[in-house]
Write a structure and sequence with these properties.
CATH architecture of the largest domain: Alpha-Beta Complex
Number of domains: 2
Helix content: 25-40%
Number of strands: 18
Order of helices and strands: EEEHHEEEEHEEEHHEHEHEHEHEHEHEHE
CATH class of the largest domain: Alpha Beta
Shape: globular
Strand content: 25-35%
CATH superfamily of the largest domain: Medium-chain alcohol dehydrogenases, catalytic domain
Length: 352
């Protein structure tokens, strides 16, 4: 195996360099993964540009290697690894627990005191590199029937699944999803698979709203042209829905959600808002017996999502709207902004 690898190393905002670094060494419980595909996420773009609270608050440690949506193969395994062998197709979690704190020792990895995020906050070096190292406990098998393209989309699918789970969507529910990015679109599909009878989805770009319809959204709402309140009044008996999944990061849409969810309903917020929210109509939550739940944990969602992908019930490759060689990553970042109206997921192909 080669001793050096190409890495897209971020030394500071807008200072991304394609450099050569040694292939990382592995410990006895680690898997060395050769990256085949990686997607660029909106969070990656925000960290790259420096225009996000994570950078301003010092939660991003430069230099760092981004990339948390990826798929690949096991290139080598540590001496104590039992579930993987070289050549296995793999994906991973994006939260790397320490494995040593009291929570980890009790099996509660989601509440690890020392968790590091793959390629983002206090980063574990991510997948914008030819190789990355992951602890065996954070790696999952990717079935042969799932393409590497689809595998790279597993991470946003697990976030969408966490939103469905956090909102406790059940058969017969009406669901409003705010946001027409990949997570919102996938959440529409998962809501229908869960048994929701009517799924509404909001956004501002026609291309993305049309894609949401392909994924199962019954009614899409262009918020630049229509009032969500008016559409819900027209399309539901009460003008309210049972569950809301907030993926947009819009403070106004989150505030509106408290007046759009039915009594006893649940709002799952899975977006980043990056600031405190003044004048939140909290009495709507209290008098409506509404649950507002923050959802950031995707632990225990990977296997259900992978099974849905393997069964063919969750197909996501049509969300890929641009493909780039790894060497062209800077162009991909430029296109994230310049082609925002029509881009959903931009994919780095390490085999191209």
């Amino acid at each position: 195996m080669q001793n050096m690898m190409r890495v897209a190393r971020l030394f500071g905002p807008r200072d991304l360099r394609l450099i050569s670094m040694p292939v990382p060494e592995i410990g006895p419980h680690d898997v060395l993964c050769k990256v085949r595909r990686a997607c660029i996420c909106g969070t990656d773009l925000a960290i790259y540009s420096g225009d996000c609270s994570f950078v301003r608050n010092g939660e991003v440690d430069f230099p760092m290697t981004q990339g948390h949506e990826w798929s690949g193969v096991a290139a080598a395994v540590g001496s104590s690894v039992t579930r993987f062998k070289p050549g296995d197709r793999v994906v991973s979690d994006n939260g790397i627990a320490c494995g040593k704190c009291p929570a980890c020792l009790c099996g509660d990895l989601a509440n690890c005191r020392n968790v590091r995020s793959l390629g983002t906050v206090h980063a574990w070096d991510g997948a914008f590199a030819e190789y990355l190292v992951m602890p065996e406990r954070s790696v999952f098998h990717l079935a042969d029937s799932i393409s590497f393209d689809e595998g790279a989309l597993m991470e946003p699918a697990t976030i969408a699944y966490s939103g469905i789970r956090g909102a406790e969507v059940k058969p017969g529910d009406t669901v409003l999803i705010n946001g027409s990015g990949s997570i919102g679109i996938i959440a529409a599909r998962l809501a229908k698979l869960t048994g929701a009878t009517k799924v509404f989805l909001t956004g501002r770009k026609e291309f993305k709203l049309n894609k949401a319809k392909e994924f199962g959204a019954d009614v899409t709402i262009d918020t630049t042209k229509e009032s969500v309140f008016e559409v819900l009044s027209r399309e539901t008996p009460t003008g309210k829905v049972d569950r809301i999944i907030e993926t947009s990061g819009s403070i106004q849409l989150l505030k509106d959600s408290l007046r759009q969810v039915a009594c006893g309903g649940i709002i799952a917020a899975i977006a980043f808002y990056e600031k405190n929210i003044p004048e939140l109509p909290i009495d709507q939550l209290v008098f409506g017996n509404v649950t507002l739940r923050g959802v950031a944990d995707s632990t225990r969602t990977h296997q259900p999502v992978l099974r849905l992908m393997e069964s063919g019930r969750l197909r996501m490759s049509s969300l890929i709207t641009g493909r780039y060689r790894f060497a062209d990553i800077l162009q991909a970042y430029r296109d994230m902004t310049e082609k925002n109206d029509t881009r959903i997921k931009l994919l780095l192909d390490f085999e191209a």
